[in-house]
Amino acid sequence: MNEILKLHAEKVGKKYLVTNNLTSKEQGVKEVLVGFTLTLGRKEIKGLKGKSGIGKTTFAKILAGLLRPSHGQVYLGAEPMYREQGYVHPHVRKHIRMIFQRTNAPFNPRVPVYDAIEEPLIIYRNDLTKAERKELVFRVAKEVHLDHTLLTQYPLQLSGGQRRVAAIARAIIVRPTFLIADEPTAGIDSQWRKRILDLFTELYQNEGIGILLISHDYKALGYVCQGNIEEITRC
């Protein structure tokens, strides 16, 4: 695949059928995301703001290849992401990684943090030996300032801020081209919020990852994105 320079969503939208919980009869269609267009360049950090319920999380999942849009298309470089019959471009999972709003979302509570961070390597880098994977896990933990002693802990033994940092480590360990973070400062205290935002700045500057930060916290977006902010509205 040629070098990917941008991730582009063209007039994507999402509709859901509304049904009666008692009768299961269809009552109509709810449009949670109206056709929205956004381009994220490689080595660019951009903010996306919008009111609650406007469709920010829906858009994030569509952009990450996790939710098929009802209309519109997402392009990974020049290649359409969504194909016929629900098929998703095979390079999506490696090139685009997502950080979810809930800090415990990417973790199995019965699996140590080390294993959770290592898992993407097992899936996408089967050329690596166990020793090489271990080296990369410890390296990425150092990059995100995650204490190595926490790697043997279980997710629920970590604070919300620590889980967020571990989730970032898990997301970037395969060296994606783009990173999508949905409300990354939600549910953590003010001290951790600043550390998380500073970490995104470091990743942008040092790793050259294209980063989309999605939040209703305009101050947080302004702190990191320095004016490069777009907004979802209902047109």
Ordered list of secondary-structure elements with their pairings:
Layout: E1 6-19, E2 26-41, E3 45-49, H1 56-63, E4 71-76, E5 79-80, H2 92-95, E6 96-99, H3 113-124, H4 130-143, H5 160-172, E7 178-182, H6 190-207, E8 210-215, H7 218-225, E9 229-231
Parallel strand pairs: 3-8, 3-9, 6-7, 7-8
Antiparallel strand pairs: 1-2, 1-4, 4-5
Task: Give the name of the CATH superfamily.
Answer: P-loop containing nucleotide triphosphate hydrolases
User: What is the 3D shape?
Assistant: globular
- Straight-line distance between termini: 36 Å
Number of domain units: 1
Question: What is the C-level CATH assignment?
Answer: Alpha Beta
Contiguous helical run count: 7
Tell me the strand order in the biggest sheet.
6-7-8-3-9
- State the share of residues found in helices, binned by percent: 25-40%
Describe this structure in words.
By secondary structure, this protein is α/β, with parallel strands linked by helices. It has one domain: P-loop containing nucleotide triphosphate hydrolases (Rossmann fold), CATH 3.40.50.300. It is built from seven helices and nine strands. The chain has helices at residues 56-63, 92-95, 113-124, 130-143, 160-172, 190-207, 218-225; strands at 6-19, 26-41, 45-49, 71-76, 79-80, 96-99, 178-182, 210-215, 229-231. The strands form two sheets. Strands 6-7-8-3-9 form a five-stranded parallel beta sheet, with helices on both faces. Strand 7, helix 6 and strand 8 form a beta-alpha-beta unit. The two termini are 36 Å apart.
